[in-house]
Amino acid sequence: MKGEVRRVFFYVQHLLGIGHLARASRIAAAMVEEGMAVTMVTGGAPVKGFPGPGIEHVQLPAILSADGGFSGLVDERGQPVDTAFEAARAKLLLAAFEGVQPDAVIIEAFPFGRRQVRFELLPLLEAIGKAGKRPLLFASIRDILQENRKAGRDRETVDLVQAHFDGVLVHGDPDFIRLEETFPLASEIRDKVLYTGLVTPPPPEASDEHFDFIVSAGGGAVGGRLIAAALEASALLGGDERWCVITGPNLPEAEFQRFQAESQGRVALYRFRPDFPGLLPNAKLSISQAGYNTVCDLLRARCPGLLIPFAAGGETEQTLRAEKLKALGLADVLQEDGLTGEAMALAISRARKLRFPANLSISLDGAATTARLVRGFNTNHPQPTPVTA
């Protein structure tokens, strides 16, 4: 392909939390800053504030994971998704693609994940291949993939990448973790892999408000146990230190009301704090799960963490990320199956002694690097990234 990419069609399907949507939105914003026109197509429940200003947005009829184990798909009413629903969504996605006529298409997670939406993504791949002016096609994936995949899935992924994709944007730093650590067949697509660095927010402006301990549960859909343990730990530890507990917007209302009653004014309890990154530079410790975006916020703010990785349904991604950070002395880890108030209080007593090193070698400029890579991509020189693969 000759010339620069001007129009980008960016597909994102978030099923449970908001991490995938948040990361993609940061990348899309960086592309807009690079002068590209971005249309983001989202297929999960709408989230206020995303994808953000300057980005065209197409919202497909929403589908969500039926539970934390990703065992099935439901619509916004909680009804199982049927073939008629799938066909209608696929038709809307193809119409959006044809309307944009992009220079490049980015598909978040697929084919490394999101097999649940193959019903619309395989037709999209076919349409891209048949387009009169075929756009570039990229997969956009986080640095650590879910392990314990079913036999044959990795081979299927490689076959799809080799047949359809021009590049695989890996939003991580190979000095922190390499793709082959969680994707054994990575060597077969080495010529397509582009490491971008971690997609972090800009350095936060420190808030005037000061908290010693910042507890956060991401979107909140599966964060109830973490919040309950944190409230108990705060009571056990006592002292004058200030606690900020952010439950996440998706925590069920009944649980939020119960936590409000239990906190008894002992902690500052919020559903959402848009200035969350700005609270971290002044904090002694962040207590959270080990999702990609939360960890990026910690690294950017240089705030030590106590990480409780999400591990339901056989999930392995957060556990590996947490252990990597622990090995670097940037965090301590408390496993989800041992999560109690007493265990958290003991872990906080250990983790509060952590100190960030003066120099951090992990690349944190992934959004801007992704934008530059996509805009200037040349099929004759497929790896212009400064982060070596």
Textual characterization of the structure:
The chain has 389 residues and is α/β, with parallel strands linked by helices. The protein has two domains: 7-198 and 364-375, 3-Layer(aba) Sandwich (Rossmann fold); 213-351, Rossmann fold, CATH 3.40.50. The chain is built from eleven helices and 15 strands. It has helices spanning 19-33, 83-100, 118-130, 153-164, 224-237, 253-263, 276-279, 292-301, 317-327, 341-351, 366-375; strands at 7-12, 37-42, 56-59, 63-65, 73-75, 104-108, 136-142, 167-171, 193-195, 213-216, 243-246, 268-270, 285-288, 305-307, 331-333. The strands form three sheets. Strands 3-2-1-6-7-8-9 form a seven-stranded parallel sheet, with helices on both faces. Helix 9 links the parallel strand 14 (305-307) and strand 15 (331-333). Helix 5 runs parallel beside helix 6.
Furnish the topology, listing elements before pairings.
Elements: E1 7-12, H1 19-33, E2 37-42, E3 56-59, E4 63-65, E5 73-75, H2 83-100, E6 104-108, H3 118-130, E7 136-142, H4 153-164, E8 167-171, E9 193-195, E10 213-216, H5 224-237, E11 243-246, H6 253-263, E12 268-270, H7 276-279, E13 285-288, H8 292-301, E14 305-307, H9 317-327, E15 331-333, H10 341-351, H11 366-375
Parallel strand pairs: 1-2, 1-6, 2-3, 6-7, 7-8, 8-9, 10-11, 10-13, 11-12, 13-14, 14-15
Antiparallel strand pairs: 4-5
